[in-house]
Amino acid sequence: MTRFIHYGGNKRRFVRRMFGEITRRYDLTNRVLTLGMDTRWRRRLAAILDLHPGDRVLDLACGTGDVALQVGRSQPHCRVVGADPVPAMLARAAERFPPIAPVCCEGEALPFRENTFQAVTIAFGARNFSCLERGLQQVYQVLAPGGRLGILEFALPDRGFCRGFYRWYLTWVLPRLGALFNRGYAYQYLVESIRHFPAPAVFLDLLASVGFTEMNTRRFLGGAVWLYYGRK
Length: 232
Ligand SMILES: C[S@@+](CC[C@H](N)C(=O)[O-])C[C@H]1O[C@@H](n2cnc3c(N)ncnc32)[C@H](O)[C@@H]1O
Known about the structure:
This protein is α/β, with parallel strands linked by helices. It has helices spanning 8-22, 26-33, 37-48, 66-74, 87-96, 132-142, 160-181, 184-196, 200-210; strands at 56-60, 79-84, 101-104, 117-123, 143-154, 213-220, 225-231. A seven-stranded mixed sheet has the order 3-2-1-4-5-7-6, sandwiched between helices.
């Protein structure tokens, strides 16, 4: 049964309010739910971008700045813009990673000129777009020619033990753990939004339809988390 709306204006309002409510304990909840593995995935995301000094990087759906921190570690001489529609998230990102330039906006309406960034990252954010295709088109536009895109997102493993185990974890464990550490409904939404997000093959087709090339993927946790790479 679907309890949340996964497209359009109602999703947009719901998602903004929800992330505003969970900001304070967001980092702690992440660490607990992933047993600290999420930091390693974000490090891999930053590494895959092959950043150079002076590169402009957009961390879209930057949340509390976890990816920006990793980008700063992997290439201290690049300029990082953090974009997110939730002011509390941006404020936390600026506290944790002062060099970040915070911009309050949504992925579907980016206020940047075409060809501005050498790299764009989106970690666990694309699932929250109210229009995924529109968000990816906007990202394509603001990337400079040759620019790199790195996306981390959850998926449902497609076979074997991992699929069964992950389904059990999503249904029985994650919502309860989420409720212990933060607002329970946010983690019910998380589970449902993972189920609604396109499967990796479909998502790769969508990236290609927007114009991305040289696509590459890495999978973590038996396919529960995917790292997508593409170039403009
Ligand atoms: C699960 S958090 C991920 C944050 C961060 N990237 C990380 O790795 O921890 C998702 C973020 O997406 C943001 N978000 C929600 N809707 C968005 C949209 N339409 N465009 C851009 N960001 C959005 C939320 O405010 C939230 O900070």
